[in-house]
Amino acid sequence: MKEWNDEIVFVRRVVPGAADRSYGIQVARLAGLPLSVIDRAKTILAKLERDDTDVTLPAAAPTAKPKKKISVAPADDSQLSLL
Fold first, then answer.
1. What range defines the domain where residue 32 resides?
2. Residue at 81 is within a domain
3. Half-sphere exposure (CA, 13 Å, Cβ side) for 76?
């Protein structure tokens, strides 16, 4: 992207089709995901690039229970009744 005459100009064009590579891991790093997640993603990517389909994922962690019960009040539909 570039800025010209107070407007944004895109210097790339999106075209139909598959990308030649993915930048998901780099984007995840820029987004601040934990290093352990980035490292695991790199490991899985390396196996997939070697066509190693035997990728084992760690067991899911138990679902965390909220410390405080949250309740949501019903929406105020009084304005809808005017219509």
1. 23-53
2. no
3. 2
